[in-house]
Amino acid sequence: MLYSCKLKSVCNLPVIYNKKINTAGTSNTDVPLAVPGMYQLDITLRRGQSLAARDRGGTSDPYVKFKIGGKEVFRSKIIHKSLNPVWEEKACLLVEHLKEPLYIKVFDYDFGLQDDFMGSAFLDLTQLELNRPTDVTVTLKDPRYPDHDLGIILLSVVLTPKEGEHRDVELSENEVVGSYFSVKSFFWRFQTQSLRLSDVHRKPHLWRGIVSITLIEGRDLKAMDSNGLSDPYVKFRLGHQKYKSKIMPKTLNPQWREQFDFHLYEERGGIIDITAWDRDAGKRDDFIGRCQIDLSALSREQTHKLVLQLEEGEGHLVLLVTLTASATVSISDLSINSLEDPKEREEILKRYSPLRIFHNLKDVGFLQVKVIRAEGLMAADVTGKSDPFCVVELNNDRLLTHTVYKNLNPEWNKVFTFNIKDIHSVLEVTVYDEDRDRSADFLGKVAIPLLSIQNGEQKAYVLKNKQLTGPTKGVIYLEIDVIFNAVKASLRTLIPKEQKYIEEENRLSKQLLLRNFIRMKRCVMVLVNAAYYINSCFDWDSPARSLAAFVLFLFVVWNFELYMIPMVLLLLLTWNYFLIISGKDNRQRDTVVEDMLEDEEEEDDKDDKDSEKKGFINKIYAIQEVCISVQNILDEVASFGERIKNTFNWTIPFLSWLAIVALCAFTVILYFIPLRYIVLVWGINKFTKKLRSPYAIDNNELLDFLSRVPSDVQVVQYQELKPDPSHSPCKRKKNNLG
């Protein structure tokens, strides 16, 4: 006689065992446990056969993704130009639920474009025998075209229970009763293991080093245009990180001199894919050639000069590559706090003291962010709840908290630490709702300039929408500390900003085009009005004003010296500073820009609803590209004028003080040193710069300084919103009592 024994839930706990037991107390049939447990799935991705061709040459560049529960857990390397690729890659995965199948997807890698789908398949984990290696052949299919033959993928898999978390046990009827009361301790152990599992999947977000790349030049590239020349540019890709160089028109030997950084997420290194392209306006760009860099073959803490031959094309690329080990970002629980430890705090303060100015100029400061909790978040699920998690970003550094399930008032209590390379960076904190079936839903975001942070103050920040133009539902509580060396920060202000490689691409927007046009028009009108004012002095419309202007003109021209130019700018900064401290602040919130940003957001919502109707846009791709270029030029011109204005308006006091120091220095230099000597030194430096440093990157200190000053749009985006009084805990208690 067989007994079917199930342990029922205790205190709403899940079923732990489901096993058939005979009267002799021996196991009759082992049934895979379709209940929460920890399993290790060892997969060897062998090879593919007869895969689909997706490239023009009749081949593909296939790679494979594994997903479990809607989350990507493994991605293979790319095998170039093969329909029968051999990977022989191993992956070790942790599985919580056997009922969730392994989703296998194959893609054709297209650099700079969207990768082409080559087929998918499911592997039912409940059909695997425990502790037994199994060779599996999966047939790839396209759900849209089920009759198409897309080839097969060969795997070897082994499914094993994790020790102490899932084991075959023989239960007698008396043992069942004892097991009934051990459910609670088992469940708490399972909860802890689940947290470890989430840490495993979150681990790749912590980077372990920096790959610094300088693209120097190209040599004898392939001519793609009818004039025997090309307009070359280069694309780089390391995992999900991408970089695109500037376009060098009409040359086969371009000189780029561009520097950028990638983050290294794996100890063993990685492969950087490099492709060279010829720019063709109005049609698809021509492919020049490709090459790769195997980072595992390069030694760390050393600069390597590489001359790489382009495959499938002609010519060479010259690069400088440096691998630097780093531990600049970290995540821990709230109980582990670097600044609360007196010894660690003293070491951090000593590291960024004024006495250590010339020690590692790139290490400007230290940032600690405590993500405490959020309240009143938006309900993203049909149950009226959300599964929120938080993403903290500083430039290209990105860390995540764990997910708090089914909660609109989550508590994370996490501490994030970053090394600051630019004190003018903006800390971005975004809250998402986790969704297993698709990408995470946006719940809210805040952007906080580092220079606006008040150390050690726990503060409630009102969450904003994606465009940072208006409030959304909820507040997030943060406590932030910034420690930096002011001299290093000032020196770093005069070099190019770190380029963010994860940015949304610009798209054509009528409202954005209009906004940028109005912004530029306002900047130009300032100059036009000044010209009208000066011209009115010549016309003697107001005799008193014209007479004063005439006397001032004679006095200035007769006594003019070059040092008076920075001195006048210095007086303007000083005048505005005294207006601010006296309470006569002439800085006004630009309500026009705010209104236009809100209008733009409404239009974006309409564009999202019509995103499926893309046929017309595809037909006028060239026109759209021109419009986007004009739109971006208008934005750059308007931002340039606004940054100059905001420098003198003390929008960022740190930068205004830095401008005062620089102007004082220029005034003294121009007063005591004849102009001819200054021009001579400048010319000698410019003419000998390439001789002294052949791979130096050109930059303009003044433009680099202005790039740190926010435009009017950024001022509005970074502006904090006033918290809703209803979010106050005391207020909520009173409401509950009422």
Automatic annotation (TrEMBL):
Keywords: Calcium, Cytoplasmic vesicle, Endoplasmic reticulum, Endosome, Membrane, Metal-binding, Repeat, Synapse, Transmembrane, Transmembrane helix. GO terms for cellular component: endoplasmic reticulum membrane; recycling endosome; synaptic vesicle membrane. It is a multi-pass membrane protein. Its main location: membrane. The keyword Transmembrane helix applies. The chain crosses the membrane at residues 547-580, 654-682. SMART domains: C2 (SM00239). Coiled coil: none annotated. Belongs to the MCTP family. This is Multiple C2 and transmembrane domain-containing protein 1. It comes from Tursiops truncatus.
